[in-house]
Backbone:
């Protein structure tokens, strides 16, 4: 209980999550080793190029640092880089280790920011902006990649609709988010109960979208750099695992589409997106022409790094969160940094 009181982290829940991933890892190993019909996957896993796997791991670590840079920018470099590094790694670890449907990281980050003096609503809206700003880069990449392949600027093997429809959908979503950010927030209802809860949820979403647009337009000049690094190096990490198993990935434009659309599987309510993400990625790469055995081997290796590295570094950082809480910035600096801002 003392650990939870100090850091907001339930150590028992984290231990259960680590045990869950250990069981999943054992099940995957046993399945790949013994089940019929997966001989090609077993063969490719045994023949993996270790140097490309090292590259994939290094790129994944670079992506994690890109997230830290984005977090630092979203909160106006409020804390020194080393403490931002601890919090950023802890948030990524919490997304994997804590049973909160992917919300463990933002919840932990908002809790820490509130404890060091950032107003609660601002901490929550800035974390919503952190999620949206990193997501916007993915939507923008789908627009550029899909349009480029459809126009013949980038090579592609799939049909026109498979490339153009995702680009149109992502562009429409970006426009919708921008328009929504310009609409005045809804007035607080007179009635309480469920109506007031719905209004609070709508206000939270509006504040998050508005903050995202404002930060991307006028915030830290390296915010976009952090977002792009977080996204692009993770894409490159998956590309490196394909190389480790002999290539076979689709051309770069369709690779970006398959990567981004495949991650929609993470929306399924499973711990760490296990099952949904793998299925989504393998299915999308198969749709864009990748042999199923190649896609399965590459995605499984990629997911080891995508889940394992944040879990390892994040578990260490979660212990160090106490140091962040024990050494907050001066209250006057916090108030001056965020005066009149949301």
Residues:
């Amino acid at each position: 209980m003392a650990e939870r009181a100090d850091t907001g982290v339930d150590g028992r829940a984290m231990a259960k999550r680590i045990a869950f991933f250990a069981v999943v890892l054992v099940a995957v190993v046993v399945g790949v080793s013994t089940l019929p019909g997966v001989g090609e996957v077993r063969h490719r896993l045994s023949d993996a190029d270790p140097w490309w796997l090292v590259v994939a791991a290094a790129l994944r670590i670079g992506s994690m640092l890109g997230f830290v840079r984005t977090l630092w920018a979203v909160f106006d470099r409020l804390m020194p880089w080393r403490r931002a590094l601890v919090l950023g790694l802890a948030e990524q670890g919490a997304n994997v280790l804590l049973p909160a449907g992917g919300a463990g990281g933002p919840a932990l980050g908002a809790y820490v920011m509130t404890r060091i003096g950032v107003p609660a609503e601002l901490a929550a809206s800035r974390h919503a902006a952190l999620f949206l700003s990193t997501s916007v880069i993915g939507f923008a990449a789908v627009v550029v990649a899909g349009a480029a392949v459809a126009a013949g600027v980038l090579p592609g093997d799939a049909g026109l609709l498979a490339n153009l429809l995702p680009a149109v959908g992502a562009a429409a979503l970006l426009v919708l988010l921008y328009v929504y950010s310009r609409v005045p927030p809804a007035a607080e209802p007179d009635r309480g109960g469920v109506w007031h809860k719905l209004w609070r949820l709508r206000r939270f979403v509006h504040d998050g979208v508005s903050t995202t647009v404002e930060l991307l337009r006028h915030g830290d000049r390296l915010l976009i750099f952090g977002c792009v690094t977080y996204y692009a190096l993770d894409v490159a990490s998956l590309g490196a695992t394909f190389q480790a198993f002999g290539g076979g990935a689709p051309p770069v434009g369709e690779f970006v589409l398959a990567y981004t659309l495949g991650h929609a599987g993470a929306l399924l309510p499973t711990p760490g997106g296990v099952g949904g993400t793998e299925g989504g990625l393998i299915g999308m790469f198969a749709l864009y022409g990748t042999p199923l055995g190649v896609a399965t081997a590459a995605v499984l290796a990629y997911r080891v790094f995508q889940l394992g590295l944040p879990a390892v570094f994040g578990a260490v950082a979660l212990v160090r969160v106490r140091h962040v809480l024990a050494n907050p910035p001066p209250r006057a600096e916090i108030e001056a940094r965020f005066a009149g801002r949301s």
